[in-house]
Structure formats: C-alpha cells, structure tokens
C-alpha cells in the first residue's frame, strides 16, 4: 500500500463531505481514487487546509460520469452521524450554544437524532439540550417547508404603515408551523433600507410580501 | 444574628436565611405555590411577595429568595401586596381554573369572577417548575425540562417522546401541586392502550411524559415490583450480578453469618453499603449479625468475608 | 511589533498616525453593517479597480460607520493639500467620476457632504489637513453639529482591525497609564468621578459597580461585556463594535485591572456575526502584540478574552439571565440579591457592563473623570450614543452630550420624513413607552426621563402623524410576549392576556372597561415581575392610553 499522508481539512464540514464522497466510490477503486481526489482537493485549496469550497471546485473540474456522481453527494441531504457530531463537539470546545449554531447552519434545524447523539457523547441530559434548543431564538427543532425572515425592529415597524407585518404574521399562524416558519430579526442595523423581508432566502419588498406568501401557502 | 421586623414584630434571625424561612419559623404565614423546602428557591409564582424597606422606599420582593439582613423591615399583607397577589391568582385562574389549590387561593383573596372574553385554556399545569426542579435537584435524572418561551412554555420530555432518562420514580407526581401528573401501575399494557401493544404484562405509565416502562416481575413470587429499564440502569451503575434484580426485595436471599466461622474482623460490617450488619457480643467475642429488615441482598459481604463465614441460604417466602 | 513595555505604545501610535495621514492619498469607505446593506463592498472594490486603472497612488481602507447612515456608502478622501472631504452616497457607479476628481485635486460638489480641516485625538495628537474648500465644515454640518464623539471617536476614521491606527488616536494609552501607575483604586476613583452610568438603560453608576466587585473577596473575578442587543429598535451596538472593536477590549482590560479580574467574556448576539469575526481576529493579533494574554505590556497583569455567542433574545440582555446563559444554563433571570458584582459568573464577583458603557472607559482613564463629567449635566454626565430611526428624514447614529434636548437630536436627523408632523417618539426602548410629541423639549437626562416614566435606552424612534398608536402598542406587547422567558407568572401570563385584550381592541370589539383593566395591571405586574422585562411590560400600553387617547377612542365603540 502506497504511503498516504493525512489530508488536512479546514473543518468538520469539509471532512464529512469528503468522506461521503469516498463512500460513493466503488470499493475496488477506493485505493486509487482516494489519493487522487486528495491531491486535487489540496491543489484547489492552494496548499492550505481543504475547505468545502475547494472540494466543490474540484468536483466541477471532474469529467463525467464522476462529476455527476459526486455532485449528487455534494447536494444530498446531510445527516448527523456520530463521527460528524464528535468532530463538531471538538471544534466547539464543548460549548453547546456554538454546537447548535453549527448544526443550524448545516441542517437548518436541530433534529431529535442530533440531540440524542450530543447527549450520548457529552453526558448532558437530553432534556436540558431540548430546553436550550427550544428557548434560543436562533434555534429551531423543526424544519418547515418555507421560511420567511422579517426585520421586526421598531424602526421598520414604524415605517410599515400598511400593517404588512401583521398580515404576514396572520398568514404564518394560519398556515401552521410545518408549512411556514417566521423568523423575526430585531434590527439588522440597516434601518435606512428597511423594512426588510426575505422569503426562502430571497429579498422581497415588505408591501408585496403578504400576497407572495399567500401564493406560496395555497400553491 | 441580624434583627429584622416582620409585621411589626422584632425577630432575631439566623444568618444566611430567607425572609420566608424566618416568617415560617415565627408562625407568620405567606402563601407560596412554587416553593418546596427540599428544593432551591425559584421565585417563579411570585405569590410570596412582601413589601420590604431597608432605609429607603418600600419595594416588593419575593420572600422565598430574599436574604435577611440587619434592619430589614418586612410587611406581608399590605393593600399593595394583596393587590399584587390578586393579579397573580387571577392570571393563574384564567389559564387553570380547575385545580383545587388555585380555587382555594381565589376564595381566600376574594376573586369571584374573571373576564369572560378570553379563551380559557383550562390547563392544569401552572408551570411552577416543581417537577422539573425535583427531577433535576433531588432525583438528578433530569428527564423533563421546560421547553419553549413565554406563554408557550411547557414541561415536557425531549420532543414529547418517551424519555430514556426517566426512572419512573414518581417524584414529579408527588410534588405537583395541581395533580396534573399521573403515574399509574397497570397490570396489563393492553388495558391501558388497547390495540397498541401485544400483551406485555405489567407496565408503569407516565402519560404526561409519553413514557411507559415494562415492570419487572419477580421470578420467585411472580409479583411485579419495579420498572425494568431503570432497574437495569441501577444494576449496571452499581456493578451487580446480572440476575440480581430477577427477584424482588422480598424474595431476595439474605445471607446468613455462620457464627462458628466468624472471627469478628468487621470486614463485612465496614463494607456493607447500607449498614445492615452490626457486631453483637457472644461469649465475650463479637460476631457479625445481618439485619434482614435493612439488607438489600446485594451480597457484597459474601465476597468480603475472608473466612467464608457468610453464606447464601434459601429463604422461606411467607 | 510586540509591546514589552508600557512606553512602547507610543511607537505603535506614531506608526498609526503615518497611516492616518499618509504622504499619498487615503480613501476610506464606511463598511459596517449599514454601509454593507447599501453596497459599500461594491464601492470598495470599484475604488480599488479604478485607482489601479488611472494609476493613482492611494490607499483604500474599509472603516466603520461614522453615523451618517442616510448617506451610505460614505467615502472620505484625505489628499495632500486638501481638507478631508466626506462624500456620500457613493455607490459603485459613481466611483469613476469621484476618482477622476480626486486625481485632479478637485472637489466633486454633487456628492460632497462636508469638510474637516483638523482632527484632534484623545491623546493630544492632531492631524492638520488642507484648509480651503468651498464646502461646509463638519462642525457646522447639521447632522454632525453639536455632536461630541467620545464613544464614537474612531468610528469611520480608523481601520477597525489595525492596532496601529487605534493607538494613533490614543488607543491603549489609557491602559498603559493605568499599568504604569499600578493603582487600581485610582482607576475606580476616576470612573466614579466621571459620573458614568450604565448605558444599557438601567443607568446604574459604573464606578459603584466596579468598586463593589473590587471589594468582594473571591478567588476569581470576571468582566462581561453585554452586547446581546435584544432591543428591537437598535442595531447600533453592532455598528459600534464593528467600527471600533479595540475600544471595547481596552475597556475590558482596564476594568479587569481595576477590579482584579484576569478573564473576560464578550457576550454578543448571533446577528452580529461580522463583529464577532473581527473580535476573534483581533484577539489573536493582540496576543501576538503583547496586549492580551500573559504579562500585558510586559507587566504582571494578565487577561484573556473569549467571545461567546448569544441567541439574541431580549431577556439574554438581562445581566443575571446572561450569566446563566454563559454558564450553559437556562436563560432566566436569577433572584437578586445577590447582585452580580458580589456573586455573578460561577458565584464570583462579576462586572457586567453594556458595550457602550465600556467604550467610554479608555477616554475617562486617559483624560480623567472630571474631564468626562464636564460634559452633560449633573446626575447625567458624559455623552450618549443614539440610533435615530423610524419616520425621520435622515436615519443616523449620533453621539451627543447628555442634557441635549430631544428636539435638537430630531433636528440633526432632519426632522420628520416628508415634512409630516411628529405624533410621538420612543426614547426608552419597548419598556420606555411612547411619548407624545409635546415632550420633545425633554433633555437626555436619566433622572428627568425616569420621572416621565420612561428611560434613556439606545434609540430614538420618531413616529409621524400617520402612526396608529394602538398598532404600535400591539407591536411592543407582541415583542414582550415573544421575548418573555416564561419563568414568572405576571410576565408570562400577563403579556399574553394584555395581547389578547389589545387584539380585541384592534378588531373593534374592545370596551372602555378593557382600558381600565389594562391600567389596573400595571402596578401589580411591575411589583411582582422577576426582571425588567416584566416590570416594564405595560409601558407601551399605559403610555399610549395616556398620551394618545384619541387612537383608542377611534377603535372603541363610541
């Protein structure tokens, strides 16, 4: 077996993505393909630790059919396996709040298996983790179909003379938490360009938001 | 020893105590809902508020948390306090009109009607947190917690699913002031939720926590005696023999000391985890004596005895 | 360079001054959160490209926010022979003509806001620019006239990530002075003499808090910076930290030295991610420079700073709930007494200070408490930073001496947008209620505002004649409902019931009895709530019922 130096990854995200890609490679080819991919990824990373972006860039440069196979891995719905959780816990130095932020960034919610795994690995009771996950404004334990983010700062609320904020809230409550989740941000500091609304990550004018949301919910 | 005044009465109080503790010691009643002497003071229900003055203007504080200090002047039943308590009780009534403890308070404070245009949630849980705090501080299983914020706050297990940390001890049921927690021992799970399980025999169910435990049945007498899963946790934690909990405490064989062989070294007595072994004098020498009433049948002493004087013996079950 | 001695700060400062007034041209772009939202990043890149294209010898630096948010992206040009010119808004499409004018040594009239001929810093250093330009001077420019920049002394001026530029304007001189004098009690005396009060809204005398912590015997002490910014009317703390993060750290260091702490935490809202990144970069830079960690500036004083992210809830700004959150526990307030200065983080004496409060400290220690107390009025010394938003002509952040009348701040912001009439305003955050426009003569004064049943928080929100005050009251009650932690009955249940009544009123099914019921709740809920959130719960309702009865009359069946 040829000597293989350990590739250095920038974070647990990159490490996880890479290992999932390797899993997609047929067993017989793993020994050959793995060092090749590591070399290419390191090149894309410019000699530094391999980032998620470097891996994605590398995939773009591959020939078919490998490109499509790996692209599927890149866009596949991510899970929270024990190894990933372990790496995340280490990265955060055991700080549960930081850990939750990481998981939110990755999966947009904190799922039951995540809580169970963290409890198992840290010894912190599940019930306490659940408390922290349901009382942090930045965290969510469920993943709705759509998300609308609204700046509900006073400055924006005052400028909202038509009462669009209230209309959006009513729609969200009627649609139910599984369909739409409303995230209120309090003053992003760009009061001059407010009121700010984002529907599924795209900026929308406040005045047209209620009608857009209605289409989304009914359609 | 700080001297404080409660309702005009000068009292010499010990150090490091709260106003509530001193009041109770001196026969002065202050109503509480979320307080329990076995738990750290919480200050959640706010019913125990009193007016305090320390040289300035009177302020309102919870007596269960406020530490006494020299010169503190306390009034427990001023008009301002009564108005405050009425609002608290009224708010509790709006959400939880049925529990006896709330109705009693309402009667005491003369609250007879509430605004009727509100939706009445009719929830018995008043979010006093006694169950959560007991599970955390006394039992230390930490199986339940508060989830959600503000009015949406509830007491629940994670994701409202069956808890793997609950040990089925029932402390939460015991401590709940509104009797909303219900723990039941049922002879058959089929009876509890018909059609839901195959017949698995006796269960202990805690519906509030969506948690159910198969109850261990004694292989000797056939009686159910305690939830199996927590028992297994204890067994592993205490490093006991695998079949240790196959028999119930009543049927478990209690070891017996052979007084002929015992040399009085006290090795067993010193190591008994529950202090069930005493040394008794017999013919001017001491011999080990195991008290059946206290013995749990863990059999440590059997291993500890270097002369093999302690033996297991079949016990006649009455 | 590594600072091994307190005197070496001056060397760093000299280097910084060379940056601030270089031999060639220096162009700065306001790149804090407000600037970024209006395209500051594109402007910066366009400037770099254009300068290279026309072969202009110039430094382009991303700086913080100088408070002129309405004119973002703000660009300042320092060119030899010319005064410093402030331009805005300079969107990326305007860059070519600006660079052309700069290269020719001309003033680009259309976008020019004001000129500065001299910048004077805390440490006495002054930078003279050119004198003449046909443009209004910054000291006369209406949005800036009357401002006194202590907390915002570096905002929009220096590269926030440059220790040298921070030192140039007097940064770390205060810490060096304190370490050289080796007298923590003297530092606390200066803070007491300054009359500085907590700027988060409670207005507790800072010197007293520090003294209490210093006098509490304990094996360990802590300094915690409260930047959880849960208030819904401001993003101003974010802007302050992004523009001058080193000032926060120096403030913490001085506090640590004074009370005997060696560890500090910055508790920062998750929405301030950019600020958090800057802080982490700086913490490693400072450690390398001998300004953080072991043996700071070669002395016996050691201090480490850790940044912790909060989830941005309002209640996490309550100091005891904050401490619980730092300990990984439930974000709920603790019973008080004991107060954090005696028993705080992990039961140890802890000073929890608002970020704006701490940013005043370097100036106070460098120039003396009585210098600071020279600004403002008795009982309300120094300056206050306010974010002016809502229905104002110019959204901006200002720093004015305490005692300034609210109507003067409104004038700085250009009055009400669209020349409409002012109906009401908010100065105390959601718990400060809404005051009638008749009260604009009130000064920014702690005692006087407390007497009006409001308080001095961090933002001034203007509300014009088209504002429905019942709707605003409902907005604030909804805020309290969502932010209530749920621990105590009056706040948890009370906020929900008050909301229900307001809903009825909004729908048109409210009665006069409802208003009486709401008002009757105020004192009991204030008396029994566990923290300031519950205690000020009814303020939006009682203030609007009192000040805008006609809005309620319209909705309640006549």
- What's the story with the biggest beta sheet of chain C? 5 strands, mixed
Radius of gyration of chain C: 24 Å
Number of extended strands of chain C: 18
CATH level 1 name of the largest domain in chain B: Alpha Beta
Please identify which CATH superfamily of the largest domain in chain C we are dealing with. Answer: NADH-ubiquinone oxidoreductase 51kDa subunit
On the 0 to 100 scale, the average pLDDT of chain C is: 93
- CATH-scheme architecture of the largest domain in chain B: Roll
Order of helices and strands of chain B: EEHEEEHHHEEHEHEEEHEHEEHE
Describe this entry's structure for a reader:
- The complex is a heterotrimer of chains A (219), B (318) and C (558).
- Chain A contains 11 helices and 4 strands.
- Chain A is α+β, with helices and mostly antiparallel strands and 219 residues long.
- Chain A has 3 domains: 64 residues; 54 residues, no CATH class; 73 residues, Glutaredoxin.
- Chain A has a 4-stranded mixed sheet, covered by helices on one side.
- In chain A, helix 2 packs across helix 3 and helix 5 crosses helix 7.
- The mean pLDDT of chain A is 82.
- Chain B has 3 domains: 122 residues, Ubiquitin-like (UB roll); 88 residues, no CATH class; 56 residues, Alpha-Beta Plaits.
- Chain B has 318 residues and is α+β, with helices and mostly antiparallel strands.
- Chain C folds into 4 domains: 121 residues, Glutaredoxin (3-Layer(aba) Sandwich), CATH 3.40.30; 202 residues, 3-Layer(aba) Sandwich (Rossmann fold), CATH 3.40.50.11540; 89 residues, Ubiquitin-like (UB roll), CATH 3.10.20; 87 residues, NADH-ubiquinone oxidoreductase 51kDa subunit, iron-sulphur binding domain (de novo design (two linked rop proteins)).
- Chain C has 22 helices and 18 strands.
- In chain C, helix 7 crosses helix 10 and helix 9 crosses helix 10.
- Chain C starts with 8 loop residues before the first helix and ends with a helix.
- The interface between A and B is medium-sized, with 12 and 17 residues.
How would you concisely characterize the structure shown here?
The complex is a heterotrimer of chains A (219), B (318) and C (558). By secondary structure, chain A is an alpha+beta fold. Helices cover 55% and strands 9% of the residues of chain A.
Helix-strand layout with pairing:
The complex is a heterotrimer of chains A (219), B (318) and C (558).
Chain A lengths: L11 H12 L3 H18 L7 H9 L5 H10 L6 H10 L4 H12 L4 H11 L3 H10 L10 E6 L2 H6 L4 H12 L4 E6 L10 E4 L2 E4 L3 H10 L1
Parallel strand pairs in A: 1-2
Antiparallel strand pairs in A: 1-3, 3-4
Helix pairs in contact in A: 2-3, 5-7, 10-11
Chain B lengths: L2 E4 L2 E4 L6 H7 L23 E5 L5 E4 L10 E3 L3 H17 L4 H9 L21 H8 L7 E3 L6 E3 L14 H5 L7 E4 L2 H4 L10 E4 L4 E7 L6 E4 H11 L17 E2 L9 H5 L5 E6 L2 E6 L9 H5 L5 E2 L7
Chain C lengths: L8 H12 L4 E6 L2 H5 L2 H14 L4 E6 L11 E4 L5 E4 L7 H10 L7 E5 L1 E3 L5 E3 L34 H6 L4 H9 L2 H11 L11 H10 L6 E6 L8 H8 L1 H15 L3 E7 L3 H16 L15 E7 L8 H8 L23 E5 H13 L1 H5 L2 E2 L2 E2 L1 E8 L5 E6 L4 H7 L9 E5 L8 E2 L9 H6 L7 E6 L4 H15 L5 H19 L4 H17 L3 H4 L3 H9 L1 H7 L3
Parallel strand pairs in C: 1-2, 8-9, 8-11, 9-10, 14-18
Antiparallel strand pairs in C: 1-3, 3-4, 4-5, 6-7, 12-13, 14-15, 16-17, 16-18
Helix pairs in contact in C: 6-10, 6-13, 7-8, 7-10, 9-10, 9-11, 10-13, 17-18, 17-21, 18-19, 19-21
